[in-house]
Amino acid sequence: MTITSPYGFTAAGVRAGLKSRGKDLALVYNTGPLKHAAAVFTTNTFAAAPVLWSRQVISDGRADAVVLNSGGANACTGPAGFQDTHTTAEQVAEALSAAGQDVSATDVLVCSTGLIGERLNMDALLPGVEAAAAALSAEETPGWDAAHAIMTTDTVPKTIAVENEAGTFRIGGMAKGAGMLAPGMATMLAVITTDAVISQPDLDAALREAVRVSFNRADSDGCMSTNDTVIAMASGAHPNADQAGVDLEEFQTLLTEVCMNLAESLINDAEGHRHVIRVTVTNAPSEEDAETAARAVARSNLFKTAIYGRDPNWGRILSAVGTTDVAFDPAQVSVSVNGVWVCRNGGIGEDRSLVDFPPGAQVEVVIDLAAGEAEATILTNDLTHDYVHENAAYST
Amino acid sequence: MTITSPYGFTAAGVRAGLKSRGKDLALVYNTGPLKHAAAVFTTNTFAAAPVLWSRQVISDGRADAVVLNSGGANACTGPAGFQDTHTTAEQVAEALSAAGQDVSATDVLVCSTGLIGERLNMDALLPGVEAAAAALSAEETPGWDAAHAIMTTDTVPKTIAVENEAGTFRIGGMAKGAGMLAPGMATMLAVITTDAVISQPDLDAALREAVRVSFNRADSDGCMSTNDTVIAMASGAHPNADQAGVDLEEFQTLLTEVCMNLAESLINDAEGHRHVIRVTVTNAPSEEDAETAARAVARSNLFKTAIYGRDPNWGRILSAVGTTDVAFDPAQVSVSVNGVWVCRNGGIGEDRSLVDFPPGAQVEVVIDLAAGEAEATILTNDLTHDYVHENAAYST
């Protein structure tokens, strides 16, 4: 159930010595026959060196391998940091070529995660690349190793794999981080593998749509990293693959499912949270409006602390929705928390003491704008003492 | 040094019984001769009943009195809540008229602050209005009483008064709350009084400019209330007033100073903070860009928790700046924290261990974008355990 579950991929996760302990370097290799790849990157102006590099690599729609490290983001490290990324890709190409694979450095994607503003320890990283290349395997365990190696403050590795009903293609994935392409303390990285036969443009379009409704709607604390990257690679290697090309609708459904699963895993593992919260806006003028309103609530510290206090404080929910430019009639808006409509038609609804917060269950907030038919859900967390503690203490 | 310091104003603060203890109802009356008034309100779609009412009152540029209550925001209370506000204004007009003042309810501004979604206790409020009208006085103490009566989670009343050098006009003010026109847990309310001779359009323009660079740049937690209101009233009653009209430039300078002082008082008293933080963006393409970038930093929970942890984490500062659409070269940006340039030209600068965080001192963050000549400062606070505690416990 990892990135090696689809045919045509090998992986490895090793300890290079970038972090104080544990595995910290992952390699994923697409053995083909297809080498199609697509990626979505952070829009942060301070995009890290590996993002700048990988944007160039992906521009022709081909990537043979991804190398990922934790223990350093290689962001705000200037031309020297970019050179480090370049050198890393060269080392991957060299190691794979030495093993009989014909790989160019310009087809090697690089991802890094960790602290910003510090150079990577290349003396540790480069031997790590050698070790990872030597350890590449299509078995399940190396897939898990890779997922372990990209963890920073994550408490568990996040992986998944699915196969379609007809058994003609699989999609696997791994991720790390604490939120959307605007994640928590460090970076959100995800690698998706598939053995479907799919053109690069179709893979690209499917990835963008899946990310839009999954990772981009998982918003733990509203902060966007310099390193966020989601990569998809297609090998076309499934033995039963439809050589005429995968059914795109079915592929989209499964890819979205995989991304949604990983996004939920990120939110479930977000730093210091007590509650996972689903903020759904219904009956909005447009899906974009629904997302805007739901995100405003998900980013309100007052709302997030209220949920931490198990307080169905619908006033703070309305306040947040009201700061957006979404068009609706405030006298028609209703809000439910865990199924109890505590606000009806912009005013007091059912008794808020009826709202239950069962331990371990997600908190479900629904905001009915009564202004259309569109809907969207943002996944987020509450704001807790532990979040403050963990983020006040991270680098010191 | 309160709202009664300028000539032509009386005030009172009494206990009506809306809160569990303490004064909770304030009245400010402009005895004239001028009755010019201006106001800036929240842009929240769920504007509270008193905001809806006061927008109508101010539309002709005249207001005779302001009545303010804590102990209830009267927001999301529907038509009945609006009727409560109307009734409150009627009661003020009646009480003042009974005392020989000719006041119409449509010239009475109303402000409320407290929990959203609960009706006001009118049986307590209306006798409170009577008591306040009877207690109106131009002395200093009633001005302080009024400032006390509008407090919610504030720990100290906020008042100020200044006089220009020539001794021809004064400006007084009071405020409550925890931030900008996007304040903390409850509402930001401010009332400014002046005895200058100034036209209503000039007063209005001066107030908007002063609010733009003061209250609107005090951003404690990024949340905007349903009740935020800043009111200015001019009596023209200073005995030495220039009857031809105040020097507008001098008036603007002093009004901005008053608003800035009150805004700083709000941030200094924000809920549960450990540090007051000044985020200044310099050398930006425009003042708006500078404000946008500074606000992005001020709203980053990762930055705010880092400062709580006394961590000059410039990576989180750059990350936040990078999420905006401000145009700059990331390789030219430098950041200082308390005078130490920890980031130079988008990369590592001076040793971050040189940064000192003296107890009680403001934290000064400067971000030099090297992309123009404009600058702006946002005042904010760190994100602390106490903020989480106070906001998780407020209504339950």
TrEMBL record, chains A, B:
CDD domains: OAT. The record marks A186, T187 as: Cleavage. It is an enzyme of class 2 (transferase). GO terms for molecular function: L-glutamate N-acetyltransferase activity; L-glutamate N-acetyltransferase activity, acting on acetyl-L-ornithine as donor. InterPro entries: Arg_biosynth_ArgJ, ArgJ-like_dom_sf, ArgJ_beta_C. The active site is at T187 (nucleophile). It catalyses: N(2)-acetyl-L-ornithine + L-glutamate = N-acetyl-L-glutamate + L-ornithine; L-glutamate + acetyl-CoA = N-acetyl-L-glutamate + CoA + H(+). The record marks T113, G114 as: Involved in the stabilization of negative charge on the oxyanion by the formation of the oxyanion hole. Its main location: cytoplasm. GO terms for cellular component: cytoplasm. It holds the Pfam family ArgJ. It is found in: Cytoplasm. It comes from the Bacteria. GO terms for biological process: L-arginine biosynthetic process; ornithine biosynthetic process. Its EC number is 2.3.1.35, 2.3.1.1. Gene3D superfamilies: arginine biosynthesis bifunctional protein suprefamily, ArgJ beta chain, C-terminal domain, L-amino peptidase D-ALA esterase/amidase. Heterotetramer of two alpha and two beta chains. Catalyzes two activities which are involved in the cyclic version of arginine biosynthesis: the synthesis of N-acetylglutamate from glutamate and acetyl-CoA as the acetyl donor, and of ornithine by transacetylation between N(2)-acetylornithine and glutamate. HAMAP family: ArgJ. Belongs to the ArgJ family. This is Arginine biosynthesis bifunctional protein ArgJ. It comes from Nesterenkonia alkaliphila.
